[in-house]
Known about the structure:
This protein is an alpha/beta fold. The protein contains 16 helices and eight strands. The chain folds into two domains: 112 residues, acylaminoacyl peptidase (de novo design (two linked rop proteins), Up-down Bundle), CATH 1.20.1440; 256 residues, 3-Layer(aba) Sandwich (Rossmann fold), CATH 3.40.50. The protein has an eight-stranded mixed sheet with strand order 1-2-4-3-5-6-7-8, with helices on both faces.
Amino acid sequence: xxxxxxxxxxxxxxxxxxxxxxxxxxxxxxxxxxxxxxxxxxxxxxxxxxxxxxxxxxxxxxxxxxxxxxxxxxxxxxxxxxxxxxxxxxxxxxxxxxxxxxxxxxxxxxxxxxxxxxxxxxxxxxxxxxxxxxxxxxxxxxxxxxxxxxxxxxxxxxxxxxxxxxxxxxxxxxxxxxxxxxxxxxxxxxxxxxxxxxxxxxxxxxxxxxxxxxxxxxxxxxxxxxxxxxxxxxxxxxxxxxxxxxxxxxxxxxxxxxxxxxxxxxxxxxxxxxxxxxxxxxxxxxxxxxxxxxxxxxxxxxxxxxxxxxxxxxxxxxxxxxxxxxxxxxxxxxxxxxxxxxxxxxxxxxxxxxxxxxxxxxxxxxxxxxxxxxxxxxxxxxxxx
Length: 385
């Protein structure tokens, strides 16, 4: 993985997320150039300096976008608003829970992403699914050249991703090109569900996954028998659990197998492996609505897939990077081995040959993502040519 900050995996990971989700390398370099000393101080110290630098980069793009908008150049303005939104979102995800400017920055990034979709004509529609007296927000991307009722992939976030960030990844276009619609969802514990609705993460993911299937089966442009699921990062736990207990999913796939997240937390407590975000323990307490670290570990105790996967009776794809420094490769083999009743189970380990060897292939997502998209298209009746 390209590590802009050689001694700081967590900060370098945010840089890679920006670069592989539509960021500009020159802009990212300009924002990061002044942060090298701060990054050397460790994951947590200096994140406010990161916030200041990346916010300033977003601010400059907004000025340029407003100038283009005044000239009627809506496409250019939309693209600049979109990159500003991305940089704001990266700045926000790096902060500690309770940082006073965090929620305001998140709301601004949402508004800018919406401007990008409107002005640049992005194939992406915001939707809201009733849940818990409020709603779960999603981004719906329509299949290209699809039949009246298209197959669809529900893309589930990880611990710290959001629907906007994942929609800006290669997943925002790769499914549509293969005749699959896609729904990027902020499930409980992520994105809007956590920040605006106060819905913490829950281990029994079928509770919210079933509501999503209900909604999709009510749409006239979706084939109710061809709804697939893809989990990214911690979605590698959420997705298999959802498919196991919600039989209306036609297939499932994971981009990073999170078979035993309970054990991963114990390992992180021993400082084994890398964390995805700074201020890690406060972050997971927030995500799970825990009072303290002990309460978090109690909630995490059931977050494993042992005794669950034999319920899956549809095709399932397990993928993992061979150099994943967050989730050990052994968990991909455990997930695959326990899919004993899947009529078609496939395991793909991404190596240096095709790239994508790091966590959820954030180092190089293109070839890995294409493999996943092709598999889903083949199973759901899309196309690969």
